[in-house]
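Why do we bother with holo predictions? Because pocket geometry can differ from the apo form. Keep that in mind while you read this record for zinc ion.
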Amino acid sequence: MKVGWSLVFGFMVALVIAAPGCRPVCPCGEKVKPATYSGPVIDAHAHLLFGDEEKALNVDVPASPAELIRRMDAAGIAQAVVMCIAPAGDPAGTAEHNDRIVEAARLHPRLIPMGSVHPADGAAAISELDRLAKQEVRALKLHPNTQGFDVSDPAVLTVVREAGLRNMIVLFDGYSPFDANQPGKLIKLAMEAPGTRIVIAHVGGPRFVELATLIHVLRSYAWYRNNLWVDLSFTAEQFGASPLGPTLAWAIGQVGADRVLFGSDFPIGDPDKALRAVRALGLDASTLRAVLHDNARDLFLAGRTAPSPH
Ligand SMILES: [Zn+2]
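The structure, written out:
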């Protein structure tokens, strides 16, 4: 169903102002239940880098599979989704990056591979999706800021739709300081590609209130296909212990506990610190179970034939 944009966002604003349910009331209520979930944890957002690039994201921490697994063990994390970011105009380099991710996941079955393409590569990007799908890669990372593309570029919509046709999830970096319209552009993209499951990383970073509110309102519309997830990487570690910690817990409730994923953003974030930050948010045990494990299992592991430790 086509809905006029001015009408949709006009209605959203009206709803946010008018509906009592949209006021920032902590979903935890007056008493915060103890965080009792102690089962397996899946990290839905970790980067791997290889060779000379190993420390490109953190000068102190090599983004190698060995270092990631060491930190997963230290934190008590069972599995992690590992990703690369495709360069522009270099399909051969993109394939090489993706092959390294696939190989790392073959060597370490606790790692779940997430590939990448560059939307500007056109037909070559679509061919790479086919190649990834044949190798059981079920997810794709796109980073508008690092890869230098605009989320509203039609080439991005093409890649996102084609990924959905191959049953691939698309994870977008969720914050750019250089595109003030990005949360809205990501929401619009999700509406225009209803057949693709999309994860917005970092809950939109410092814009997490705006993003959570938009998703909350979207979920009330009958036509919305509920194809959005968010991950807490960076944002929980950054804001969890700040005065905005309770607001982040509220935002998780607005997005919906069934749509929030734990992530570390290794090597930028530390898996143990990220996990402690999420556990300290005061979420109830069932929400914590969903966020730390079940949502990522259902999204990334359902129907997967690759070996899984649990
Ligand atoms: Zn990241």
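The longest helix spans residues 91-107.
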